[in-house]
Amino acid sequence: MSKLKTLFEPKSVAVIGASGNPEKLGWQILNNIKNGGFKGKVYPISLKEKKILNHKCYTSISAVKSAIDLAVIVIPGKFVLDEVKKCAAAKVANVVIISAGFGEINEAGKRLETEMATIARKANMRIVGPNCLGIISAAVNLNATFAKFNPHADIKRRNNIAVISQSGAVGSAALDFIASKNIGFSSFISLGNKADLDEGDFFQHFFHDNKTDLVVAYLEEIKNGLKFMNTVSRLAKIKPVAVLKAGRTQKGGLAAMSHTGSLTASNDVIVTALKRSGAIVLDNVSDMFNLMRLIKKPITLDSFDFNIVSNAGGPLVMTVDEISSAGYGLNKALDIIGDADAKKYQKTLVALLADKKINNILVILTPQTSTEVEKTAEIIGRLAKRHTNKLICASFIGGEAVSEGKKILAKYMVPSYDYPEEAVRAMGKFMEYQKIVKKLKVFAAPKIFSENYSPAGAAQMDYLESFQVLSDYNIPAIETIKVDKDSLGGIKYPAVLKVVGKDLIHKTDRQAVFINVPSMVEAGDILTNNELLKDKDNYLVAQPMVKSDYGLILGFRRDHSFGPILMIGYGGIYTEIFKDVQLEVGDIDKTRAMAMIEKLRVYPILKGARGAKSYDLDSLADILVKLAKIASEHYEIKEFDINPMLATHDGFTAVDVRIII
To answer: What is the spatial distance between Cα 203 and Cα 209, in angstroms, rounded to a whole number?
Structure first.
């Protein structure tokens, strides 16, 4: 059973700050609770009023002698802390704080949030918010928000979709969309500032909630990435989770010191974490709404190629283009031409649905002289009702001529889209989820995490010590020696010489790398006269020349929320320019390491394109797994990159390594 059952199915609700003025939120929330059809007990808390909306008022939460499952606080922010203390003393189970003026304002507000959360934990009480819209639960017809939404009247279908939103505006738009379509609804949560309960707690709740088939979340920040990946990956194994993450293009606070750091921007990390969790990644609000149309109950697909039926060649071709450009597969694309009436649609669809290998169909219709819009919609609806284990969607393209057909499709709960491209995106994302979830493993968050992680004070580990780390983990590396006057004669020439030091992050940019040094004379000249060596913290190293056609970059960056993010890509000095890279979360195994390699654009060359000899990619995958082990065992390492890791037909060899601690 969910620990939040009393939050979503309360038997009693108090409104602290209830008002007799319809312009006040305290009245609007109380009115929503009453008109929504909530059958439990309601206790308005007001210092001024005796009765509001036919409910007896109480001057304080402590004056209510009955048990209270949920208290909604809607008073000026400066008074909220005292009310939270009173709720804790009265043993209130859950508190929703609508009031603003906390962490979103200043540091003092954040401290108030922390204090309220501490009080709640001691009293075994949970808090939603502050600075939130509230919650809605279809299970008990409760609308404890100030949004215009009536769970008693607006919900045409009980259960199915839960919406979590960190934005009140996005949440309100989602509710309005649900009310205007025949979309199933289970609950809505406005997260606000997440002083106590966060998205992870609600994902955990929906794991136990059999009234919810799809969880859609709009998030602006993820507080605990490790907890997030654990809860989402567990939930995604039994029901789809779709996440629209805003602010993905913002750079993190840590100025990247390594190639790895510069190539793992916040957007890439978040998308990587979402994919590792098994979440459906939404790119915009349109994606969110289109997916909400699609998923109406649990359904399992075992093939993932599109099947299309259309009465128009142009839209069919454009739909096939959309499928191809998105990287999805195509099974059948049937043009039943412009004279197709309802019977022709029926004959075609019945034949396709009889094929056990076909589990999805997108039906495209354009209004032409022979088109029977309403009859065709009726046929599609009846077939969808009969074949509940198959994904049947429709796109009736046009305006007034197809409007009645769309209403019929809605009656039968057939996902209907104005344009086939929208249908392809929604169906594709859902089918991709179905493919991934079959192999999805729950993310096991490490018991220890770098709580003292700080972007401040990052420094480069000594160069030779960095090579020792590679040696400790049996990662192949080139022989590297420190150069002084006594060792000049022992170097095998021609050689590569490098000036290294804690401030020499990108050595090539500083003219600190000397390739193909022919003899001891030239090496001695560099040792004696190079300006960089006048800094006592810098020194010279030598490495043998290695011939290689390709260089790769491997590494990881420790994200402050999601932990280590591993990377592999095309390496060298132009790494940031080509950006042929793949990322993975730090719990990588050999299979996922190989999948990273196979997604690289340079992979066909490494595999042996046009009859060329392939490289030892199995050993390359092993190196990635070893890097993950380093990341898990050395929390002090912030960034780690090997660039380049030279590829030869004898194996892979690290010739440069940079570790930031």
So the answer is: 10
Query: What's the burial of 269, exposed, middle or buried (CB within 10 Å: 0-12/13-18/19+)?
Result: buried
> Are 183 and 160 a contacting pair, CB within 8 Å?
yes
How far lies 157's CA from each of 151, 153, 170, 417, in Å? 10, 10, 21, 19
Q: Give the global pTM.
A: 0.89
Dump pLDDT digits (tens) for 457-488: 678 999 999 999 999 999 999 999 999 999 99
Q: Which of 589, 598, 326, 302 is nearest to 438 (CA)?
A: 302
Continuous segment of H or E residues that includes residue 203: helix 199-208
Give the count of beta carbons closer than 10 Å to the beta carbon of residue 514. 17
Q: Measured between alpha carbons, how far is 35 from 49 in angstroms, rounded to an integer?
A: 20
Helices assigned H by DSSP within 354-461:
373-386, 400-411, 420-437
Amino acid at 645: M
Ramachandran area for residue 454 (φ above 0: left; ψ -120 to 50: alpha; else beta): beta
Distance CA 7, CA 132 (A): 15
| Residues across the chain | 661
pLDDT in tens, 600-650: 999 999 998 888 899 999 999 999 999 999 999 998 999 999 999 999 988
Residue 297: CB atoms within 10 A of its CB come to: 12
Residue 629 neighbours by CB under 8 Å, 6+ apart:
473
Give how far Cα 314 sits from Cα of 310, 325, 393, 400, Å.
9, 17, 19, 20
Sign of CA dihedral 285, 425, 310, 292: negative
pLDDT in tens, 509-557: 899 999 999 999 999 999 999 999 999 999 999 999 998 888 999 999 9
**Rounded alpha-carbon distances, angstroms, from residue 49 to 18, 22, 28, 59, 619:** 8, 13, 15, 9, 75
Interatomic CA distance for residues 9 and 175, integer angstroms: 19
Q: Output the 3-class SS for 149-199.
A: CCCCCCCCEEEEEEEEECCHHHHHHHHHHHHHCCCEEEEEEECCCCCCCCH
Buried b (16+ CB within 10 A) or exposed e, 642-660: bbbbbbeeeebbbbbbbbb
Residue of 523, 513, 512 whose CA lies nearest to 487: 523
Task: Provide the 3-class DSSP secondary structure of residue 205.
Answer: helix
Selection from 34, 29, 2 nearest residue 186 by Cα: 2
Q: Exposure of 173 by Cβ count < 10 A (0-12 exposed, 13-18 middle, 19+ buried)?
A: middle
Q: Is the dihedral of CA 654, 656, 660, 661 positive or negative?
A: positive
Which neighbouring-strand residues pair with 460?
660
